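sry for the spam today, last one i promise. struct tokens for design, 228 residues
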């Protein structure tokens, strides 16, 4: 298992009126983050907040190329990012104990915090298709180039972990510095992760380890499966 210190490239926020950051996702242009009673979008180039949607936003956030998905207590809501309208909802597998959320392979991937699990979920019915066990609390989930990563946060320690999606074995660990808690995780489809900073009100960009091979741009990847 490879273990290295995480390289923080940039910090965004805190954003006025948003004291907490929960779920995080990226639509190819803006970074979205959940702050309890709103979904907020900012420009990662300028760091400026560009819009907010008034919707329950308590945990993980995901984007499928067209719609936002947001954990709201014991539900996962499907949201039109243009209008802010909630189009549909399905039960969340943890019934209120869910954390991270990601989109890949046409399905949702839902982290359960204290249960230390990641569920693959049918976005139409909410049915659990399979479950991956972790040995740490799960606070964020993302797929990129066939790699499954999840964030952990226990006590004063936070990490980004690459795991084997079949066995849950930890393959790589990026250790965050003390105080840099991770409450949500998303890849930009390229060389960085966006990490929710919990009650710091910040979002941090962290360098994704170089695999030594070129990757497609994030704009080419948005709306397609992150697992190849």
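last one done:
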């Amino acid at each position: 298992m490879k273990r290295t210190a995480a390289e923080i490239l940039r910090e965004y926020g805190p954003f006025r009126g948003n004291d907490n950051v929960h779920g995080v996702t990226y639509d190819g242009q803006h970074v979205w983050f959940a702050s309890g009673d709103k979904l907020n979008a900012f420009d990662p180039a300028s760091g400026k907040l560009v819009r907010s949607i008034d919707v329950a936003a308590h945990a993980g956030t995901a984007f499928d190329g067209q719609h936002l998905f947001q954990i709201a207590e014991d539900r996962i809501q499907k949201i039109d990012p243009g209008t802010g309208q909630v189009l549909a909802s399905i039960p969340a597998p943890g019934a209120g104990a869910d954390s991270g959320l990601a989109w890949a392979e046409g399905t949702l991937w839902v982290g359960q915090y204290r249960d230390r699990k990641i569920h693959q979920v049918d976005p139409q019915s909410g049915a659990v298709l399979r479950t991956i066990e972790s040995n740490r609390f799960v606070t964020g989930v993302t797929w990129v180039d066939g790699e499954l990563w999840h964030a952990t946060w226990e006590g004063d320690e936070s990490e980004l972990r690459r795991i084997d999606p079949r066995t849950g074995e930890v393959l790589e660990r990026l250790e965050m510095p003390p105080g840099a808690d991770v409450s949500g995780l998303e890849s930009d489809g390229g060389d960085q992760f966006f990490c929710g900073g919990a009650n710091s009100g910040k979002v941090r960009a962290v360098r994704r380890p170089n695999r030594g091979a070129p990757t497609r741009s994030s704009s080419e990847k948005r709306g397609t499966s992150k697992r190849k």
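The longest strand covers residues 49-57. ok im logging off now
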